[in-house]
Write a structure and sequence with these properties.
Shape: globular
Oligomer: single chain
Structural class: alpha+beta
CATH architecture of the largest domain: 2-Layer Sandwich
Number of domains: 4
Number of helices: 16
Strand content: 25-35%
Distance between the termini: 74 Å
CATH topology of the largest domain: Methyltransferase, Cobalt-precorrin-4 Transmethylase, Domain 2
CATH class of the largest domain: Alpha Beta
CATH superfamily of the largest domain: Schlafen, AAA domain
Largest sheet: 8 strands, antiparallel
Strand order of the largest sheet: 5-4-3-2-1-8-7-6
Number of strands: 24
Length: 543
């Protein structure tokens, strides 16, 4: 018979040895890493500084890219909302007050939008933009004499007066491109190249989308949004670092630049042709874009010579709809190395601090929670939650942030895959993204019983994950993928798919059969909001 006390003693001894070896090995790794980092930083000071400069440039340009990308994504969401409203008959060019009361608050809530414009294939035209005391409205009803009536409205949506008339040619025919491009890409939100509109002096770019009027499947209306390029500059210039200058580039020929301090102060900019050799001789931003193209459009930072001085530049694409634009930053070598000066010593001190803090924390954890290390390692090795963890989540029951679905695609009543099954849980994904986030468990019925995903008949786990990914791209959009995670967990009862949704800052729509719908979570239910309620919900959420 075995001696239980000896067994217990042996077990305790092994545990103590395990803890001692683990602490010893971790300490050796930390000290080895510490001396390697210190030696690298001290003996490769200049190379490390250059690496830091390149990393810093990429970090700055990425921050600026994300800032502009978020703005563009928000504008695309508003364009899709305009299309939804138009298809439901909310836009009547003849109903000026209705248009003002609907669009005015949106412009007030979104400063980037400088004007809304509408035109139809019957010759109708409507435009609204902010004015110092309210809204300026330009309207031309179809079949008129070619004269636009300019009206002034108050912020309370009350008519004030009629301004002097303006010819149709000056206001409408000068800007046909946004209408034509939207008509050619029917249903898609498309951007136009920057231009100076008839109503102002600052250059704008127009985002437009075409749709059928609700009373006819052939009559076309185009809704458009004007955004000032200067506003984009104000956004990206809000992220500053040393002597770094920013510019926008169309990726081919034209660069939008505000190089001088006076131009930046007045939010003005120049349009520079980078293929013009004279421009390359006097403008280092134009030369940076030219060198970037001639270098094969690299993702890394580039260096070049200008007026006997070394410069660094980094460019990054910002793609939204059919607008392909790049953000670029450029700075002289001395300015960047001033920023990097002394970083070698600083890095060493930081490395020491991090390593010592890590050792201290590890010792505390090893001392206080050593009995949990083995279990933790087992969980990390398997990459899965335990059955008890899954059951603990299920035990909460369905609610505002948790929903169960029996399958991913199989209709259990018909025994065949059904699109309605996929759309059902995709609605919940959209609702979670538009509300406070949540979790969907696939393979669990309404009663909390684990059925598994065998009924979906996927060849393997990779096929299941790929199918999930394709559904998200098709019905929700690739831009929302960072807010959605999908994991498969094997339990003794069957496979469970966990869809984790984080709340999105931007409106999310479900695209099904070329129709877009807006959903939110209300308690344990997924609710579709009509257009007016969706607008009110978004305004309240933004506020």
């Amino acid at each position: 018979m075995k001696n239980k006390n000896n067994d217990q003693f042996s077990g305790d001894l092994l545990k103590r040895k395990f803890r001692v070896k683990l602490v010893r090995d971790i300490l050796l790794v930390f000290f080895a890493a510490l001396f390697l980092m210190g030696g690298l930083l001290w003996f490769r000071g200049n190379a490390v500084q250059k690496t830091y400069v390149q990393m810093k440039l990429k970090d700055v340009v990425e921050n600026k890219r994300l800032t502009l990308s978020n703005d563009l994504n928000n504008l695309n969401s508003y364009a899709q909302m305009l299309k939804m409203w138009g298809k439901e008959g909310f836009f009547r060019i003849s109903d000026v007050k209705g248009m003002v009361s609907l669009l005015g608050p949106v412009m007030d809530a979104v400063p980037l939008i400088r004007a809304f414009k509408f035109a139809d294939d019957g010759g109708g035209f409507f435009m609204i933009r902010n004015s110092p005391d309210g809204y300026s409205v330009a309207i031309l009803k179809g079949g008129g004499d070619g004269v636009i009536e300019l009206q002034e409205w108050s912020k309370e949506f009350k008519f004030k007066n009629i301004a002097p008339e303006m010819s149709r040619e000056k206001e409408v025919l000068k800007e046909p491109l946004w209408y034509r491009k939207a008509s050619e890409s029917f249903g898609e939100a498309v951007w136009n190249k920057p231009y100076v509109p008839a109503y102002g002096k600052e250059m704008v770019s127009t985002l437009s989308v075409a749709f059928h009027k609700p009373e006819s499947n052939s009559a076309i209306m185009v809704a458009a949004v004007d955004v000032q390029i200067g506003d984009f500059f104000r956004q990206i210039e809000s992220i500053k670092i040393g002597g770094v200058d920013s510019f926008l580039f169309d990726g081919k020929k034209y660069l939008f630049s505000a190089s001088s301090l006076k131009e930046k102060a007045e939010n003005k900019f120049d349009i520079v042709d980078i293929t013009n050799q004279q421009n390359l001789a006097v403008d280092y931003e134009a030369l940076a874009a030219n060198k970037w193209i001639s270098s094969g459009r690299p993702s890394d930072s580039i260096s070049f010579e200008f007026s006997g001085e070394k410069y660094w530049a980094s460019l990054s694409y910002v793609s939204s709809g059919k607008l392909d634009m790049l953000i670029g930053i450029v700075a002289p070598d001395p300015d960047l190395f001033d920023l990097a000066a002394g970083r070698g010593v600083g890095f060493v001190l930081i490395a020491w601090s991090i390593v010592l803090a890590s050792i201290f924390l590890f010792l505390m954890i090893a001392y206080k929670y050593s009995h949990q290390i083995k279990d933790l390692a087992s969980i990390l090795d398997s990459g899965q939650l335990k059955d008890d963890d899954i059951l603990r989540i299920i035990s909460k029951g369905e609610g505002a942030d948790l929903e169960f679905k029996s399958t991913m695609r199989m209709n259990l009543h018909t025994g065949k895959p059904g699109k309605e099954i996929e759309i059902a849980w995709l609605k919940t994904v959209v609702a979670f993204l538009n509300t406070e986030g949540g979790i969907i468990l696939l393979g669990v019925d309404d009663g909390g019983n684990i059925l598994g995903l065998d009924a979906d008949v996927f060849e393997n786990d990779d096929k299941c994950c790929l199918h999930f990914k394709n559904l998200i791209h098709q019905h929700i959009g690739i831009e929302h993928v960072p807010n959605i995670r999908f994991n498969l967990y094997r339990t003794q009862y069957g496979n469970v798919g966990m869809v984790t949704c984080e709340p999105s800052k931007n409106p999310v729509f479900l695209n099904n059969k070329n129709e877009e719908a807006f959903y939110i979570r209300s308690g344990p239910s997924t609710v579709q909001l009509p257009i007016r309620q969706a607008l009110e919900y978004l305004k309240q959420r933004k506020g």
